[in-house]
TrEMBL record:
Homodimer. This is Acetylornithine aminotransferase. The keyword Ion transport does not apply. N(2)-acetyl-L-ornithine binds at residues 132, 275. It catalyses: N(2)-acetyl-L-ornithine + 2-oxoglutarate = N-acetyl-L-glutamate 5-semialdehyde + L-glutamate. The keyword Cytoplasm applies. Transmembrane segments: none annotated. Keywords: Amino-acid biosynthesis, Aminotransferase, Arginine biosynthesis, Cytoplasm, Pyridoxal phosphate, Transferase. Its cofactor is pyridoxal 5'-phosphate. Binds 1 pyridoxal phosphate per subunit. May also have succinyldiaminopimelate aminotransferase activity, thus carrying out the corresponding step in lysine biosynthesis.
């Protein structure tokens, strides 16, 4: 494969797919690959879901773009469907996760500005990933991703994920904190969950309320049914002031969203933020179709049942080895011994087992299958992965 004209920002695998359907990707010669990655948690409804394809086709033939200078009926409808599911008051549509997070982080600064702060700080977590724009990159932990970009380090305080004592200490040490920004499960950082699970979010919200900070949750990866609820925070009693999402929101169509509630509602006014493309008729109709499927298909229940089945079956099959699992719904981390060399796993899974996976945090196999996977396909993921791992353990 020649990529002469493309900047080498990715180490691409030596394969490309020409078409996809449901849980399967196909090469030009029709070889099927079972997709347990879905474009990194994007195609939650499976590849080319008929309802989404129909929405794209019909809207592409009707009206693609007018700009936010005009009313956009599909944006209103998508906003209502999304905010109702997310239990939020209003939404700003962007085009990616990083852009949605950029909006959230800018909003935190506006919130601080209204209270007369000079240089506000946001608390973020170790191992976090929030995107590649300068502000979202500054919130991101990964030093390799940040290297050389003069990130805005003074504007963030980084604490260990899951550590409430560190948040309390930060509140004592700094007088200029305006928000906490957190992923419910750290996707890129190793499928990390807090020791007390989603109750961690409740503790974070309590700290935000006690200190008058905004509570902001990044559900770019965990949102849109991925963990078996519309949004992962809904596994807890926590309620964010600001909630971002992208990835599964468009099932492959690029779209992001920053939602607000309560005291964060109204921070952005006319002219304070914008996007030429955000919420086009086409993108919005896609979002509406995704939420129509999520609401009416039993797909999130399936994500919970099949996710649990995949996790349990793999750990049962490999119980004599040092293998455990973590995650929720269709966000599954299979944790391998940290002494194991996992550098060849992705290639071996693809070439020898026709299974598409990802490895994160050096020794965690990350499985992000479609939410509507069949039991037979779940069994295939289990069988292929166990056959890959067993000889290597
Ligand atoms: C939690 C989280 N936030 C933000 C992003 C960035 O999203 P995007 O690549 O759409 O800009 C990602 C991408 O992996 C993510 O997982």
């Amino acid at each position: 494969m020649s990529a002469t004209y493309l900047m080498p920002t990715y180490n691409r695998q030596p394969i490309s797919f020409t078409h996809g359907s449901g849980s399967w990707l196909y090469t030009k010669d029709e070889t099927p690959y079972l997709d347990a990655l879905t474009g990194i948690a994007v195609c939650g409804l499976g590849h080319c879901h008929p309802k989404v394809t129909e929405a794209i086709q019909q809207q592409a033939a009707t009206l693609v773009h007018t700009s936010n200078l005009f009313g956009i009926d599909w944006q209103e409808r998508a906003g209502e469907a999304l905010c109702t599911a997310a239990q939020m008051d209003s939404v700003f549509f962007a085009n990616s996760g990083a852009e949605a997070n950029e909006a959230a982080l800018k909003m935190a600064r506006l919130y601080a500005h209204q209270q007369g702060f000079k240089r506000p700080k946001v608390i973020v977590m170790e191992q976090s990933f929030h995107g590649r724009t300068l502000l979202s990159l500054s919130a991101t932990a990964n030093p390799k991703a940040r290297e050389g970009f003069y990130t805005l380090d003074d504007d963030f305080i980084r604490v260990p994920f899951g550590d409430i004592a560190a948040i309390k200490q930060a509140a004592k040490d700094y007088g200029d904190i305006c928000a906490i920004f957190v992923e419910p499960i750290q996707g890129e950082g190793g499928l990390n969950t807090a020791a007390n699970g989603f109750s961690y979010l409740e503790e974070l919200q309590a700290q935000c309320e006690a200190n008058n900070w905004l509570f902001m949750i990044d559900e770019v990866q965990t949102g849109n049914g991925r963990t078996g609820k519309y949004f992962a925070y809904q596994h807890s009693n926590a309620r964010p002031d600001v909630l971002t999402t992208a990835k599964g929101l468009g099932n492959g169509f690029p779209v992001g969203a920053c939602m607000v509630r309560g005291r964060a509602n109204g921070l952005f006014g006319a002219g304070s933020h914008g996007s030429t493309y955000g919420g086009t008729p086409l993108a919005s109709r896609v979002v509406h179709s995704v939420y129509d499927v999520l609401a009416n298909s039993g797909i999130m229940e399936n994500a919970l049942t099949e996710g649990q089945f995949i996790r349990k079956s793999i750990t049962d099959e490999l119980q004599q080895y040092d293998v455990s699992s973590r995650g929720a719904g269709m966000m599954i981390g299979i944790v391998l011994p940290n002494t194991m060399d996992c550098s060849q796993l992705v290639d071996l899974a693809r070439d020898e087992h026709k299974l598409i996976i990802n490895v994160t945090g050096s020794h965690v196999v990350r499985l992000l299958p479609p939410l509507n996977i069949s039991r037979h396909e779940s069994q295939q993921i289990i069988e292929r992965l166990v056959n890959l791992l067993r000889p290597l353990l």
